[in-house]
Every structure is written in structure tokens, then in C-alpha cells.
């Protein structure tokens, strides 16, 4: 029976250290952080736990093998030498996807079919199957990823990407990925007893992720994962992980989280999303222009993803919004403000130099995360 596994939590560029922190907080110490991923040596019970709890990772993959290959023969033989039968049963469905960067084996379709063939041969031999493998069982999406001639073979344990929490019923034009929204909150030092406002909330992603963090609700609690169907992970491990998530959720933690937006349709969507996330009336939603925002308490946090002003015709309006926000926050120096934007002169318009900046990608858009620490 498989006990120890190598897992890969994939991360968007710039978020690797945030993902690594989350992995460590879940109690996994044997980790390696590289571009785009965190590799974790752990017991198989980490598969349910990482999938359920990681807020900022894209997926959790099971690494089956890693080796150098310069020819199709080498790729075939080394793939076939790996213990696939420990993971994929006789009837497992295992499509093979692929990618190749800066490598001798650059034809991705060829690599995919060679890997597929090698796994088929191995499984037939080990499971004692003379004819075709039926592939009518659980789903084991397999990936061959080649980078500078190093081949990484893995099986995706998540199914749909981890950003799909299962609460998004609707969205606006430029919704933030849930994983990035969670990272924006985690990059602040907000504590659940402090006021939290997103004055450009759109479909509510940042405020909803903050509420989930505030009450320690596992982000994957409302969804399913491909590996829930896998035979080599005992069903009770999933049960234990879901029970642990239920026990650790702190539904009694009071929160003061508000999402506001100029567009009343977005507020309706945000409300519906929060309901779907099981948050009920926990987050306050308001239709309001940013210039009418007046913080009422001290020591609060603004975390927001305003429009960037990249679309024709919106530049001036967006610049005025940044100025308005800067003026309001200047009157409230105890508040900390965190803004994600690609606008090149944001600080100038806002009227203050950021305490700290961090480069992040919002999809393909290069952005900066401007952080203004409140005066204590
Ligand atoms: C980039 S979107 C935010 C997306 C959000 N993070 C999400 O995940 O759905 C920017 C939002 O700012 C809102 N907005 C534009 N002008 C505004 C203003 N003057 N005051 C408040 N909100 C405004 C838009 O309606 C839009 O929903």
C-alpha cells in the first residue's frame, strides 16, 4: 500500500512563498519552493488535507516520477519503469496532457502518446490484463511536463482548479481568481477582529475570501475533488479531513467585513455568491461610489482590486477614483490600504508612496500590489 507521496502544489507566478506558508501552516515541513510550485514530501493523508485547505494554490498534483530524457526511447522506458499500478487501477481513466519547454523532446503530442503507451504497457503487465484497458473507472488526469530535458510525470488530484470553490454563481467583467483574492488577504496582517472593506468589490471575491479566512472555513468544503474517487486513498482519510475542517471552522468569530461597488447589479451577484459560500448575512454589501466611503472605525483594512483604467474612455474616471480614495484614506491614517492595480502612476494619484510593493500577475496582466501600512 502507498503511504509516502511527493505532492506538488502549483502556484501562480509570485505566489509561491504564500502557498509555501500555507503548506507549512498545515504541518508539512519537508518542502521545496521553486518557480510555479511547492513540492511536498508527505503521507497520503496530505492529498485530502491540501486540497481542502490550500487557499492560494492552483492545484495539487501527485508526482509519479522525475528523470532526464533526450530521446523517445528514454522517455518510454523510464515512464514504463515507474509504479503506475500503485495509483491507477485496472479500469482507471487516464488521459495524458503535456507541455515542453526548452527541451530536446519538443513535440508535445508525440510525448503524450509515448507516455500513454508506456503506462498502458505497465498497467496491463502489472494488473494482468491481456486485452484493452477499459478506462471506465475513476479519473486520473496524467501530465508529462518537460523542462530543460527534465521530465516530470504527475497525476492531478484536484479535478477542477482549486480556485473553483463552488460559490461563484455570477461574476462581473473582470473577476479576480479566488486564489489570488485569498493571497491578497493573506499578504496583509488583517486580523478577523478588525474592520475590512473592499470598496470596489465587484462579485465580492476578496470580501468572501476574507470571511472564509476570518472564520477559518476550509475553501474546498463546498466542492468535490478528482482524488475522492481514488482507490489507494482510503475513504476514511477524506472523511477525517472533512471532519477536521468542520471542527476547525469558527462560525462564532464575529466579523466586520463590507463589500461595496458603484454597480447595484454587482452587489446582487456578490450577495448571491456569499449565500452560496454559506456565509449568509455575514458580509455587509452596499451599493456605493468610492468617493462616498467614510470609514467609521479605527485600524481597519481596505483590500481592493479597482478598475485599472486600461479600457478606452475610462482612464480619467479611474484616475479620479484613485485620487478620491487617497484623499479619504489620508483622513483615516490608522487604516491600512492594499490596492492591486496595473496603473503606472497609482502612487502619485493616490498621493502617497507605498510602504511596500509586490509584483503579482492578475491573469496575464502585470500588476503591483501597493501596501500602505496604517499608523498605530
Ligand atoms: C476590477 S472590478 C473588481 C472585481 C472583483 N475583485 C471581483 O472579483 O469580482 C472593479 C469594480 O469597480 C467598480 N467600480 C467602478 N467605478 C467605481 C466607483 N467610482 N466606485 C465604486 N466602485 C466602482 C466596478 O463596478 C467593478 O465591479
From TrEMBL:
This is Class I SAM-dependent RNA methyltransferase. GO terms for molecular function: methyltransferase activity. PROSITE patterns: N6_MTASE (PS00092), THUMP (PS51165), UPF0020 (PS01261). Keywords: Methyltransferase, RNA-binding, Transferase. One of its GO terms (biological process) is methylation. The lineage of its organism: Bacteria, Bacillati, Bacillota, Bacilli, Bacillales. It comes from the Bacteria. InterPro entries: DNA_methylase_N6_adenine_CS (IPR002052), RlmKL-like_Mtase (IPR000241), RlmKL-like_Mtase_CS (IPR053943), RlmL_1st (IPR054170), SAM-dependent_MTases_sf (IPR029063), THUMP_dom (IPR004114). Residues 46-157 form the THUMP domain. It holds the Pfam family UPF0020. The keyword RNA-binding applies.
